[in-house]
Amino acid sequence: MTTTDPRRPGGVLLRILPPGLYSGRAGAIIERSVLSYSRGWLVFVSGVMEPLFYLLAFQIGFGALVGDVTGPGGRPLDYVAFVAPALLVASAMNGAVFDSTFGVFFKFRYAKTYDAMLATPVGPLDIAAGEIGWAVLRGGLYAVAFFGVMSVMGMVDSPWAMLLVPVALLVAFAFAAIGMACATFLRSPSQFEFVQLAVVPMFLFSTTFFPLSVYPVPLQVVVQCLPLYHGVELARGLSVGVPDLTMLGHAAYLFALAALGVVATARRLAGLLLR
Amino acid sequence: MVEAKALVKRFGDFEAVRGIDVHVRRGEAFGFLGPNGAGKSSTMRMIASVSPRTDGELTVLGLDPDREGPRIRARLGVVPQQDNLDSELTVRQNLQVYGRYFGLSRSHVRRRAAELMEFAQLTERADDEVEPLSGGMKRRLTIARSLVNDPELLLLDEPTTGLDPQARHLVWDRLFRLKSQGVTLIVTTHYMDEAEQLCDRLVVMDGGRIAAEGSPTELIRRFATREVLELRFAPGEQEPVVGLVDDLADRVEVLPDRILLYTGSGEAALERAHARGVRPVSSLVRRSTLEDVFLRLTGRSLVE
């Protein structure tokens, strides 16, 4: 792979992802995760319960204190209905980040799981796609559960809201990909504090709990750079049924992030394990 | 099966493999011997197509690892130096999932896992987790896992390091069986008895180069004498004796507590030593082993 000839046809894509990095076996990696998690099903229970607790807390507690807020399109909105779609994508983010950093770090540094995989036809891009794919599936499962709770609580009244689950999947995809790429840079478990340091403020400030207009303009720009902000805006707009063209921009941002993460992960794994 | 010419592997400034020629034939058991850091594992990783070569030529199963890595790896079995079993899965799942990485069907890997657990004597532990298994069992499972794709070429990096004698013999027994089935084996080891047991042909590596090549008996003939006479003394008392015996052998080696005389006939040398008034604490005549060859070629000092 060091001898990639720049003159070879195939051009840029082949240079970013040289052949031999992929053999179409990402599915087998996902199968492995399914088997491994089928014995750790408790993770799923906690993942589904957590957002439920959040929703109840907002319904019973904050909802009574805060009253209505201004939602997308200037419509007055129940505070719980304002927060719920944001929490949905935030939980997708949390699930994806957790899986793709802690899980990946352990397998990568200690268990040498990926070294074992690379001794087979499986390549680094298979590993990246498989692990990220699994994180997305898991995030999707949480999102479906969350969506179910939302509909039971009467917060789903627009047909557009059906798109909340795919949005959650996209958010999970972007964060899993970036998370996994970052995990390859971590050297010791204590460095997971960096992950927390990135995720917690993102969770709190990406217009999850209050609208962008709360911030002074310079800070608004900063917040708009955060990936979770784009997920929250997408989800909230769809949840109340006010779609607009900026949503394409939000989605494009998340897609780009996801693609960047997948490529970076595959290249990092190749550089570190195939040396 | 493997053809290397002037093969080089560099990591930054460090040259782990410095231009080696290797030729491994189908059906043979080929060994890489050498102290730690000799370049054995780097060579094995290049052959396993998970480490691109820095320079030189290499073909594995007639293919170029740089371009056809996945196709080569599909036909290889690899037993790494350290077991990297999947601790999140059971014994059976380890085999089945690994088979799936090769793209084998679910029904095929189910059947194959059952066969391999039988082969590795792990059937009773089929649904146990991997972590509580003994070192020998884990090693056997790693070997079983490497066979899931019916490889033509099996690469074993120090297959029995850290195992007790019973476990080692069981592993050797399994490797003999594979060899008799026509699987080509490439083994690295620093155990001389292992090399003598397993290998038809071997190379001794030292400092990234090949120091010698041949069958175990050839190497002993070429680099050692038929027998070795060991004369043991209280530490320090061997020095004055050296002058009395150094003409009795082809080669003499002086260690802190003994003198080694490399000679065609140990008994004859011992008699003549006695006749000259040499009185060791004890003496031993033994056949030369690959260990003598190894120490001669790679030196006695510790390599770190």
Automatic annotation (TrEMBL), chain A:
Cellular localisation: Cell membrane; Membrane
Keyword Cell membrane: yes
Domain of life assignment: Bacteria
Keyword field: Antibiotic resistance, Cell membrane, Membrane, Transmembrane, Transmembrane helix, Transport
Official protein name in the record: Transport permease protein
GO annotation, biological process: response to antibiotic
Membrane topology: Multi-pass membrane protein
Membrane-traversing stretches: 41-67, 79-106, 127-148, 160-182, 194-214, 247-266
UniProt GO MF annotations: ABC-type transporter activity
GO cellular component: ATP-binding cassette (ABC) transporter complex
Stretches assigned to the ABC transmembrane type-2 domain: 42-272
One Pfam family hit: ABC2_membrane
Species of origin: Prauserella shujinwangii
Family: Belongs to the ABC-2 integral membrane protein family.
Automatic annotation (TrEMBL), chain B:
Keyword Nucleotide-binding assigned: yes
Domain of life: Bacteria
Similarity field: Belongs to the ABC transporter superfamily.
Database matches in PROSITE patterns: ABC_TRANSPORTER_1, ABC_TRANSPORTER_2
A biological-process GO annotation: response to antibiotic
GO annotation, cellular component aspect: plasma membrane
InterPro entries, per database record: AAA+_ATPase, ABC_transporter-like_ATP-bd, ABC_transporter-like_CS, ABC_transporter_ATP-binding, P-loop_NTPase
Pfam families named among the record's database cross-references: ABC_tran
GO MF assignments: ATP binding; ATP hydrolysis activity
Protein name, entry field: Lipooligosaccharide transport system ATP-binding protein
Keyword ATP-binding: yes
Domain ABC transporter, chain residue ranges per copy: 2-232
Record key words, sorted: Antibiotic resistance, ATP-binding, Cell membrane, Membrane, Nucleotide-binding, Translocase, Transport
Subcellular compartments: Cell membrane
Membrane topology: Peripheral membrane protein
Membrane spanning residue stretches: none
